[in-house]
């Protein structure tokens, strides 16, 4: 489909997203044409990317967002040197599940795609299981579009978004050592070339067993033997995936060879879970930043300073062998993967 109204103003769209206060009930005002233009440009960009992205370190890895625009803004602010949302001062890798569940799926996916267009080499998006038609027609995205546009327009936009999702890469490899995907791996993964060879667009990943695992698989807690073989076979140190809600935002499995990160705190307003994002530094050391749930009476600079000094004094170190302390969800955790310097 050709561009419909010419080139969208990416700088203005970035500003509109960073200025937006997510408490405004009406959401960001988009014209149908600018959405279609952004999607058209995004498809052009994504279709040139490989199915297995090669990503350099340092990088910030983000798990499920699920339409929680305010939390996406918090993540940008946390990692922005200017303390401003929308400023891409870091390399980012998002692990999918941008839409559904939360109330601002449209803002989240538009914000991410606009960033992708503005910073194509620093901003990486892979596909989650909610970036598929038969899931996002049921779990909120289509309903949200129908509440903001007339029904035929909403349906056309939903189709255009899903055409774009069909082109998203399915996995990423950070510095050749950390394999990242939304779901997980399964017996169909024999080598990294198997991922590279999956052809896109892939309208229904369910028809490809390996793609299904990458989008849907969950770790089996007793699978350390399988994990060891997989890591040897693929010559990797760690798997980073998302897809499952973690009470503290992240969790290690399979003898600490696999980590789940989930970046939507207070998920669907029922869970009091924290969110987490993972930062991999130049030396391939991994650390986590936790997004705590924030109550109305906890907002403000005074409360932030109190909380900050409280958390800063917490030097506890969480290990898999120690029973997690429910009060210590702010514990920092660091993991050295390799001493090799990242290029
Ligand atoms: Mn998922």
Automatic annotation (TrEMBL):
Region (Disordered), start-end ranges: 310-343
Protein name, entry field: Serine/threonine-protein phosphatase
Entry-linked Pfam families: Metallophos
Keywords: Hydrolase
Hydrolase is among the record's keywords: yes
SUPFAM superfamilies: Metallo-dependent phosphatases
Stretches assigned to the Serine/threonine specific protein phosphatases domain: 126-131
A GO MF label: protein serine/threonine phosphatase activity
Membrane-crossing residue ranges in chain numbering: none
Organism: Steinernema hermaphroditum
InterPro entries: Calcineurin-like_PHP, Metallo-depent_PP-like, PP1_catalytic_subunit, Ser/Thr-sp_prot-phosphatase
Entry annotated with the keyword Hydrolase: yes
Basic and acidic residues composition-biased segments: 310-325
